[in-house]
Amino acid sequence: GFTLKVFEEQQRLKVQGTGQPALEVQIAGPDRVTASAVDAVFEFKRNAQGQVVGLTLRQRGQVIEGKKLL
């Protein structure tokens, strides 16, 4: 399946999909980052305790929902 890794590298926030190179993302608001290089928006979902539990990827008309694995 497809997984998406969100991480910091050399003081830059990045995302990396399965089999893809890591991309730098820009903070676009609370719980929202964008990757202009691939026209994508990532929106983090939180539970009632404020913990990140999932993510929505919006890219070129597609919407992909995912849950946090770690």
Overview features:
70 residues, 0% helix
The SSE string, one letter per element, is EEEEEEEE
Rg of Cα set = 12 Å
Biggest sheet strand order reads 4-5-6-7-8
> Helix fraction?
under 10%
Total strands? 8
Beta content: over 45%
The N- to C-terminal Cα distance equals 16 Å
- Main sheet overview: 5 strands, antiparallel
- Number of helical elements: 0
| Overall SS class | mainly beta
Q: Look at the structure and give the mean pLDDT.
A: 95
Can you put this structure into words, describing what you see?
- The chain is an all-beta fold and 70 residues long.
- It is 0% helix and 61% strand.
- The protein is built from no helices and 8 strands.
- It has strands at 4-9, 12-17, 23-24, 26-29, 32-35, 40-46, 52-59, 62-67.
- The strands form 2 sheets. Strands 4-5-6-7-8 form a 5-stranded antiparallel sheet, with no helix packed on it. Strands 1-2-3 form a 3-stranded antiparallel sheet, with no helix packed on it.
- A hairpin with a 4-residue loop joins strand 5 and strand 6.
- The chain is globular and about 30 Å long.
- The two termini are 16 Å apart.
Short description:
With 70 residues, the protein is mostly beta strands. It has strands at 4-9, 12-17, 23-24, 26-29, 32-35, 40-46, 52-59, 62-67.
What's the helix and strand layout?
Elements: E1 4-9, E2 12-17, E3 23-24, E4 26-29, E5 32-35, E6 40-46, E7 52-59, E8 62-67
Antiparallel strand pairs: 1-2, 2-3, 4-5, 5-6, 6-7, 7-8
